């Protein structure tokens, strides 16, 4: 017989190699559980070409490439698939990121001005419509604008000029079909972080602020604060400062806290991002690592066009953290399997959704 330590190592190795589908099937439907979720819905582009553009002509082409990417990602179809994942999780509260409103309109070359833009995709509206059509009952509990590009000239090669506008939002949705004696929410709050980055472009500097949203809620007469946010992705120092703002601001409360976010702070694989480490050092519990200490639970990221045949999730940055008397009972990934893809072969998002079953005490 093998020594005990060898058998234990083999067992841990077996657990670590289990596919997501083996342990992330569904959440309990018991009467005593609180279900919450975080989901980055994917705005349809990574702005890589815009960030790299060095001259006006290159910038025009980059803007054209950006809106082309968004169109190719088919937000209406993806919002239908994403609504299905939210309904499968059944959360009372959902933290959503990258709910963009994309608009376009004509560009007058003679005067170098943008005409009136009209909406092409409103992801919040499309997601709410999809949820309602599939029988779910949610309302917007809190929302905040993050960054916004004003109507900006672009060029779709070879010769289609246009103007593009985008407004990026973070949102909390709350269920309206739960017994009000069991679940209520109030006190919606939101603000932009004071620490942010700026994007220099050939037509000027564009601020890229981030924001947080929160509500106070009760579930089975147990009160807590639910916070959603989307921290800075490109500049680690700014991300860390935003995390500190969050802990000193909306999370500085006597209530137990549930923080559901795209943190852009890598929890797995190692090395862990400083912002993540800061939260753990401040006493926050990571619901995933509490439940699955030996599983990576990757949540990000599929290919930019979300049409990759096999999943490319390779890091865990979408987190549900708790502070105070909140029991973590179960946690599940959604939108990470082939069955979640749209009929045309798109992933619902470039992220997986994360839903947890919790019990405020």
TrEMBL record:
Provide the GO biological process annotations: DNA repair
List required co-factors. Answer: Mn(2+); Mg(2+)
Signal peptide position in this chain?
1-24
Report the GO molecular function annotations. Answer: hydrolase activity; metal ion binding; nuclease activity
Give the top-rank taxon of the lineage listed in the UniProt record for this protein.
Bacteria
- InterPro entries linked: Endo/exonu/phosph_ase_sf (IPR036691), TDP2-like (IPR051547)
UniProt keyword annotations, A-Z: DNA damage, DNA repair, Hydrolase, Magnesium, Metal-binding, Nuclease, Signal
Q: What is this protein called?
A: Endonuclease/exonuclease/phosphatase domain-containing protein
Organism in which the protein naturally occurs? Cupriavidus necator
């Amino acid at each position: 017989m093998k020594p005990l330590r060898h058998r234990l190592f083999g067992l841990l190795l077996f657990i670590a190699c289990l596919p997501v589908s083996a342990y992330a099937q569904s959440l309990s439907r018991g009467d005593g559980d609180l279900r919450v979720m975080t989901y980055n819905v994917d705005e349809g582009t990574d702005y890589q070409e815009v960030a790299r553009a060095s001259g006006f002509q290159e910038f025009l082409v980059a803007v054209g490439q950006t809106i082309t990417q968004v169109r190719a990602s088919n937000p209406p179809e993806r919002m239908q698939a994403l609504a299905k994942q939210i309904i499968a999780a059944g959360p009372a509260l959902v933290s959503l990121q990258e709910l963009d409103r994309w608009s376009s309109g004509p560009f007058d070359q003679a005067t170098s001005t943008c005409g009136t833009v009209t909406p092409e995709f409103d992801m919040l509206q499309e997601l709410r419509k999809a949820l309602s059509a599939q029988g779910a009952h949610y309302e917007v509990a809190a929302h905040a604008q993050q960054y916004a590009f004003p109507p900006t000239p672009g060029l779709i090669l070879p010769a289609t000029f246009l103007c593009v506008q985008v407004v990026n939002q973070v949102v909390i949705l709350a269920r309206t079909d739960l017994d009000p004696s069991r679940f209520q929410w109030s006190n919606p709050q939101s603000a932009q972080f004071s620490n942010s980055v700026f994007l220099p472009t050939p037509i000027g500097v564009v601020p890229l602020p981030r924001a947080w949203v929160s509500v106070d809620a009760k579930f089975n007469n147990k009160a807590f604060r639910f916070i959603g946010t989307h921290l800075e992705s490109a500049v680690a120092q700014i991300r860390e400062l935003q995390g500190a703002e969050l802990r000193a601001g909306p999370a500085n409360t006597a209530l137990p806290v549930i923080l559901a976010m795209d943190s852009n702070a890598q929890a797995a694989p190692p090395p862990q991002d400083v912002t993540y480490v800061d939260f753990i050092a401040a006493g926050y519990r990571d619901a995933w690592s509490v439940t699955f200490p030996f599983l990576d639970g990757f949540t990000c990221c599929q290919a930019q066009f979300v049409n990759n045949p096999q999943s490319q999730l390779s890091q865990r940055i979408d987190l549900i953290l708790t502070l105070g008397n909140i029991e973590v009972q179960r946690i599940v990934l959604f939108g990470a399997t082939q069955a979640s893809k749209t009929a045309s072969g798109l992933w619902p998002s470039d992220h997986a959704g994360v839903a947890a079953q919790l019990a405020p005490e």
